[in-house]
Amino acid sequence: MKIAVCIKRVPDTTAKVRIAADGKTVDPAGVEWVIGPYEEIALEAALKLKEAGKAEKVTVLCLGPKEATKELRTALAMGADDAVLLVDGGGERDAAAVAGALAAEAKGLGADLLLFGWKAIDTDQASVPHLAAAILERPCVSFVTKLEAGDGRLLCHREVEGGTEALEVPLPCVLTAQKGLAEPRYASLKGIMAAKKKPLVEKPAPAAAAAVRTERLSLPPERPPGRILGQGVDAVPELVRLLRDEAKLL
Amino acid sequence: MAHASPYTAMDFYDVDALLTEEDRIVRDTVRSFVDAEILPDIRRHFRDGTFPLDLIPRFGEMGLLGSQLEGYGCAGMSYTAYGVICREMERGDSGARSFCSVQSSLVMYPIHRYGSEEQKRKWLPEMAAGRKIGCFGLTEPDFGSNPGGMATTAKTVKGGFVLNGNKYWITNASIADLSLVWARLDGGTIRGFLVEKGTKGCTPEEIRGKYSLRASDTSGIVLEDCFVPSDAILPEGVGLKAPLSCLDSARYGIAWGAVGAAQACFDEALRYAKTRIQFDRPIASFQLVQNKFAEMLTWITSAQLQAWRLGRLWDEGTHEPAHTSLAKRHNVEMALKVGRTCRDILGASGITEEYAALRHVLNLESVITYEGTHDIHGLILGERITGIPAFKG
Ligand SMILES: Cc1cc2nc3c(=O)[nH]c(=O)nc-3n(C[C@H](O)[C@H](O)[C@H](O)COP(=O)(O)OP(=O)(O)OC[C@H]3O[C@@H](n4cnc5c(N)ncnc54)[C@H](O)[C@@H]3O)c2cc1C
After folding, report:
1. Mutate which of A186, A198, A222, A223 to test chain B, going by most B C-beta atoms within 10 A?
2. What is the full DSSP assignment across A45-83?
3. Which residue among A18, A77, B385, B387 is the one 20 to 30 A from A42 at the CA level?
């Protein structure tokens, strides 16, 4: 089985996001970039399959800016075999266009299993994997929390309200990783050294296209300041009233 | 890897843009590791005066031990990468960075540089993997800044050597599998001896009651008619310059490490100052507080640039010991100033273990003393500038 793991370069979870002058994109100044956390889980799951002898090759695939070589090298340092960067030439690209570019590349790579994180934590759309599956006309299971490889098939678990669902899916297919599927490893220094010699192909991404366009981005409203209702026991009735009527917590 | 704490390293001049992509991957990896594995438990270790021993094999797995050395299971990375590791480790705690400094620069480095092929094969892969721990015994109760005066002796006997003396202030001595002990051989020059744990006549004694570097083992070593076989001596490396070369490499790591401690304090204090309200306004809005941050930002930025440039000199092989003295001296003092200023900004909260600033300050009180005190480095620079050594008054 050949696996392609799609990873996205996203601002670090702790980065303070500022909106750029165009009002539509994130200002990249001062932002640290990382592999999305769910993509990391997907990659770890792929590496586990390879280590268990169930997959012969793990390719990481990214559509992103030229600087995303750092995230791809990180993935190679963790243990992926090779990497492809579809260099984004700019312009707005909606989820369908991203999915189209990744799907075409994954097909070209001959990937049997196409793995994604269930969502990218920057845009929070959770649509690219499903669109890619549709474009490739392959079955898709999302939010996978456990994965076993059988003969030409995969057994996937997913958490549903109050329980677990076990599903079987034939290869080739598309899966999205949810927390719990795997615990990402740290890249080792030797891995980082080895990654320098692993193939990383950069090629231009297909021209950007977007049917869905970003109108504007805005930051969440400032949180209103706290209120002091009074002191001691006397404040309790008002506190209870607010918790019930305003916060609707009771 | 996305990291688990709200830490943002202040890097005003984007000095990290000067690092290679590979060094930045090292940075991200070690930073996440420190967040996930060191910081959650560091307060307990500092309180109890223990080192997180369970992390040592993890350091090994990641290749953080002896990372700057080639072969023998070592990662063979640049000195800059080694510096980045030290910086990120010390952002967690100086104890973790000290462990790496001792293992990588004070024990693995001399074995790699001065050891026999057999010594290298026996010790380096095990130490790189974190399965064996080393310590470096140079300082004695009566010889600190002046190690050349040491009283520990080695006497040639049939089949080996007999060591006698006391080593003191030795990081990792109680937990070490291997002690590299420096002693004067037959009344002549200083030589290094590899003493294995459990060797008769070699007893570690823990130093208690430290206020500083509490999450690190600091002990004495008592050597009483301690016999070691003839293959225990490091064959190369004769005289005081051998241990001094190790210190040079460790000081290099300290120059980077101090930046990490300062960045940790700065980040914490900045977040605090923006949310702490006094006189109906965040304290960050007061001019005096802003000026403190402006000063600290300036100090940190110049320390970052020194560390980076020193890394280049080491990687190019054009460094001299005085270069390292300058950055060690400057950066540790800088980190202490930043730490104390941040402690002040934190007010009373800053004296509790809820916040890291005072822990860093306390640690840095050791860091400014060990590996050559602040003033000794001043003297090294003074000699370099004037050509006149002033060590003897
Ligand atoms: C936590 C910790 C861990 C350590 N780990 C190790 C280790 O692993 N291995 C090891 O070998 N050592 C270790 N040391 C020892 C350390 O290197 C020494 O403490 C250091 O070299 C200073 O020696 P000293 O403490 O005896 O101070 P002294 O040499 O007694 O110095 C005291 C003061 O006098 C000043 N002074 C001394 N000589 C002069 C002079 N000529 N001119 C002007 N001022 C002078 C110093 O600057 C200092 O301010 C460690 C120390 C600490 C605190």
Report:
1. A186
2. HHHHHHHTTS-SEEEEEEEE-GGGHHHHHHHHHHT-SEE
3. A18
